[in-house]
Each structure stands twice: as structure tokens, then as C-alpha cells.
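Lab notes, practical 5.
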Amino acid sequence: MVLSRDVKLVSRFHAAAVVLGLWVTTLSLRAELPPLIPRDVLFGNPERTSPRLSPDGRRLAWLAPNTNNVLQIWVRTVGKQDDRIVTADKKRGIRIYTWARNSEMLLYLQDTDGDENFQVHGVDLSNGNVRNFTAIQGVRGDIVATHRDFPDEVLVSLNVRDRTLFDVYRLHLRTGALTLDTENPGDVVNWEADTQFKVRGATVSTPDGGTEIRVRAEVTAPWETLLKVGPEENIGLLGFTADGKSVFLESSLNRDTAAVVEKLVEGDGERVIAASDEVDVGQVMIHPVRHIVEAVSFEPGRSSWKVLDAGVQADFDGIRALHDGDFQVTSRSDADDRWLVAFITDRGSTRFYSWDRQTKKGELMFVAQPKLDAFTLAPMKPVVITARDGLKLNAYLTLPVGLPAKNLPMVLNVHGGPWARDNWGFSSRSQLYANRGYAVLQVNYRGSTGYGKKFLNAANRQWGLKMHDDLIDAVNWAVREGIADPKKVAIAGGSYGGYATLAGLAFTPDVFACGVDIVGPSNIKTLLNSIPPYWKPMQNVFKVRIGDINDPADAELIRNASPLFRADKIRRPLLIGQGANDPRVKQAESEQIVEAIEKNRGSVTYVLYPDEGHGFARPENRVDFQGREERFLAEHLGGRYEPMIAEPHPGSTAVVRVVGGK
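Output from the prediction step:
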């Protein structure tokens, strides 16, 4: 059939209209997306966060930035507006703090540029003096316990005597004196003080990778084994009862999921306090004076509380009515007349309430990032995905607001650990991805915690194998459901999530369009050979969970699970972020994969932050890297992005190296 000139012109116009129509449709869809949420709002410092009541209930402390945008501790008198800054950190910002039990001093932990050698500092509110109580080069400190009857003392752990082991010292706050309290016999990884402020509990890593709980009748008595289990069990020491005759445990013995159990120190008596057949116990709320378990949370998808003490039932009922998020009690006075409550939600930052236990009324104190309330955020939906071997994977799906959930570009956002889990709630990264037009899938792959010991142990020696298969199965699920465009799926994550990114591009090079790796290991052998010295007692656990790097029989397993040795398969663009002082995943882990990709003529952008460690604490560096990431994703997936105002972002220390590509 021959077309006339006029018909040909009409046909060409129609074809152009079709193309134009598709383009207009795409534009209209993108126009339906809500306004861009600025990176500064998503990844900058909170305006206020982490409130803590003083033990006497007279003061309130919280974290907030100063005029130089560095997080500091602020204090006010309850009922007054006499806010004041009581610290003067110069650079990194304070993130971990608590009250001393004398209500006159605040204690906080700080490291140097992310090296994780935390030192214990104290702020004396009576005179404003700030003191570093553990100023010993190369030593890591932590707070073990405080006690209302010993208001001027703190039990701290320090690896002074041996960098591989932590002993317990008694810190005298008024003099600054440190007195050795309990010496580590060589295998203890955690300590527990009883209700009399005596170290009577210890958690030990056994040679087979299992766990031993030890107790002693008095501080002068020998340690006795209370419980000893293999690596397949989930056991943890939660605390002592008021009389010191029993302990509270998290225990999976005789069941799949971990329950809260009360067990006698002497004898075989024990009872299950709270349990779920679906998931492990979550948060355990123990009264700080009466030392009874008041409530326990469980979190299959969202978190819910099981109240065990009738005395707090009305409080929990009233708190639930304040907000529709998931909540936790974060602070309480010694008199127990006032609680501070944090509400977690998927479409907003944490909201902090003050709860009056006498009137049973709550009052909103502040929102951590109130500027987020001006923007449209995407809901996070719990979903369940079936892996190829039938294992059920709990996951979270976040879809962009304004776009139909059909054939979208997608980011597989992989959590770190791997012995951790994703939770329902606000995620800055997931909200960034969704706001820019991407579906976001977060999967609790096998080995994630919280779903029972069978699920945890299903990941043993499965790095790069079934753990990786779970991620691929999740992508395939999203494609089958019509949610994800199979040609536009990115993989991203930090720590183990960074490893999963490298594995995704190296082991399944045709699945992902690009990848974003933050502080991810590339070679398991070099990773485990360079871990911090104080991780030595846990090396037996790594042998069970990952493999033995010193056993020739495991050499092939370790090598095959290491993306470095398949760097020649990495053909898709890759963005890597690394902290130079990372003690867990050393800088060499990123640099050796960059060199291997360069050798094989691949494409990678490598961003190093000289003043960061395992992740990016300084907001200037967070905003810098996220700007690079969203631009990278826009180039390879086609989403929106907010242009960077400068490179590097003002105040960031980013050092960038580009190999191949643009």
C-alpha cells in the first residue's frame, strides 16, 4: 500500500504526537511528585533531640547544635526557660550522653574523627567545668552502670591493661580517680552490675562461637557458669532482680524465638516472662528501682508493647492515644513521676513528649526535625517476601508519593550488620530516594536479627551465597509485582550493606544498573585481619557466622564471598564513600576495590572523608555524600535531584577520585 504525501505527513505528525505524548505524560507524572525535600533538612543536624531528665527530675538536658552547627548538650530547669549550652565540642558533635546519678553532672562519650576510641567526659553543672576522665591515648571507654545510692560514682569499662580486653573501673566523679574494680579473665565481652552496684554478671564469647553467662555471689567470690550455649542460640543478660537472687535473660533455649526469662542464680528455677512465636523479644522495660519487667515490645513489622506490670497499664494506654507512631520510654525520674516518651513514625521525625504519671497527661516537648513537617513524606509499608527456598523475609516498601506504583526505578537499600535489622519508621535515605522518584525496598535478609534463631543461623557461612540470593529474590519480587523496572534497579547500603552492593555488582552484574557502597568491605580476609584489637574475643563468632580465614578448608569459601576477586565483573557504575579513620572497615577495603576496578577499566567514583570513621557523623559530610549519591542515581536511574551548591559541600572534607566514566 502506497501512502499519499498528505497521509505521510499526517502519519509523521501522529508519530511525533505519540512521542510527544509520552514525553508529556512523563513530565506530568514527574510534576505530580511533591516538591524536593532539601538535603539539609533530611541529613542536617536535628534542631533538638535525645532529651533526658535528671534523676532528681529538676533538670532537662537535650542535644542541639550551637551557632557553629555542632551538636552540644543543652540544659534547662524544668518549668523555666533558662536554656544554656554546657559543652563546647569543636567539631564532631556530641551524640552519646547520660546523667550522673548526682543530677549535678552530665557524662558523654566522644572519639577522635571516628576512630571509636571513645573517652568518658563529664560536665559539672555547678561550675561549668568539663573534664576528660579517661584521657589515655588509644584506649576505648564506655559506661557500664550508674546507681542512685552511689551518686558520685560510675562504673566504666577500659582496655588500659590489655587493648584486647575491657576491665571495669570505678570512677570517682569528684576526684576523677579511677580504681580497678573487676579484672577481665580474658574472654568477657560485656559486664553487668547488680542492684547493689556490684559487678556480678559477665557475658563470655566461648571458643566455639557460643555464649556463656557467668555470675558470682559476691565480688570476692569466684565466677560460676550460669548458662553455656552453642553459637546457634540467642542468649543475653538483661539485669538482676532487686534481691540479686535471679537474673533476667533474653533466651532462645527450648524455643526458636528469644523470650524474656527470669532464672535463679543458684538452682535450676526459671520462668518465661514474655514471648512471641513470631519474633524475638524487642525492647525490655525494667523498673530502675524495683527491678521488675514492666513491659516488653515485639516487632514483626511495626512495634507493639505487651504490658506485664499492672501499675503501668494506664500509662501505656494513655501514651498510645497521644500519637499513631511507635513509642518508647526514653527517660524517667528516680521518683518515677514523669517519663519522657519518643514517638517514631514513618512520615516525620521523632516527636518527644513529656508524660505526667499522676495526671496521666502528655505534652509535646519538641520535634527533632520540625522542618520535615512542611514536606510530603512517603509511607513505609511492611511486606513479606518468600525467598527461593521458602524462607519468609520481612521487608519494608516505600513508594514515591504522586506516582503510580508501576514500573518504577527502584533502590534496594540494604541494612548493615549483618546482625541487625531494618525497622519501621523514619529513614532519611529512604525518604530521599522516594522523594526523588524511586521505589525503595529494605529487606531483612537471613541473618538479620529479631526473627528467631533458625532465621539467624540460616545465614551462617552464606555471605555472597544465600544471603545474596535473598536480595536478588527481593528484586525479582518487586519486578513480578510490577513495582520495579528491571532495567533501573540500584543497590545501596553501608557496612554490610556496602559489601552487599559490591557483591551485587560483582556476583550478579546484570541485575543492578548501579551501586552505592558506604564503608563496605571488599575482601573478607583482609577485613577480619584488620578488625580492632578489642574485637578479639568475638573472632570465634565470626568463624561460625562467616568462615575461618585461617583454615585452609575455608579459603575457597572466603575468597568466593569476597567481591575483590571478581572486580573484573563489575561493569556497572559504582559510587563509594569511606571514612579514613574507620576502625571496623579500614580505608584499604575501599581502596583495593577501587584499584581493582581501575585495573579492569571499570567505572567508580571514590569519596574519602579524612575526618570520619564508620559512617559520616558530621552533617557537612553527610550532606556532601548524599548530594553526590542522588546526582549519581539521577544519572543512572533517571530520577530527580537537588543540585549541589558547591563541591565539596561547604564545610565538608571530601576528597574525590573518579575512575573511568564521566
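Observations recorded by the TA: Confidence is low (pLDDT under 50) at residues 1-29. DSSP finds twelve helices and 36 strands in the chain.
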